[in-house]
Amino acid sequence: MKMSSTEFAHQGEIPERYTCEGEDIAPMLAWSELPAGTRSLALIVDDPDAPDPDAPKLTWVHWVLYGLPPTVAGLPEAGRPLPVGTLEGVNDWKRTGYGGPCPPIGRHRYFFKLYALDAVLPDLQRPTKAQLEKAMDGHVLAKAELIGTYQKRRR
């Protein structure tokens, strides 16, 4: 399974447009080579370097999606419209939707993680990342990862 973006390369810098210093919209994502038996997909975007990459204390969650149909090969810029059947969880700002990189200190890494599942999960009523991961347990067929980095230009 593979995932990519036309907006940044794996391990490359996420353009300002997709951060809190820009338009704060999701970058375009594409995926391919889903394993046989994939019934749905889930996407989690998080930052394990919060608040300071030299002394990380927590993983900050930026986006939680699940129920993506396996017939969809990606998400458009801004993540809208979401594919039919897609459900949203809450990020660490306690809201649904994408929240772009906005690191307080240093250059952070942002992990875009796509999971192929052997099941269609029920409506989990705006789950957190932890709740979604618990529901996915035992259903993950494969995982693809795209990592981008960002450091604020303005203070």
Strand percent estimate:
35-45%
What is the total tally of β strands? 9
Mean residue pLDDT: 97
The domain count comes to 1
The CATH class is Alpha Beta
CATH architecture: Alpha-Beta Complex
Helix/sheet category: mainly beta
What summary fits the major beta sheet? 6 strands, mixed
Going by CATH, the homologous superfamily would be PEBP-like
Could you tell me the CATH topology label.
Phosphatidylethanolamine-binding Protein
The number of helical segments is 1
Cα shape: globular
How many whole angstroms does the radius of gyration measure? 15 Å
Helix content: under 10%
Features:
about 160 residues; mainly beta; 6-stranded mixed β-sheet; 3-stranded antiparallel β-sheet; about 5% helix; about 35% strand
Any overview of this molecule?
- This protein is mostly beta strands and 155 residues long.
- It has a single domain, classed as Phosphatidylethanolamine-binding Protein (Alpha-Beta Complex).
- The protein is 5% helix and 36% strand.
- The protein is built from one helix and nine strands, in the order ββββββββαβ.
- The protein has one helix at residues 129-136, and strands at 2-4, 12-13, 29-32, 40-50, 58-68, 74-75, 87-88, 108-117, 140-150.
- The strands form two sheets. It has a six-stranded mixed sheet with strand order 2-9-8-4-5-7, with helices on one face.
- β4 (40-50) and β5 form a beta hairpin.
- The chain is globular.
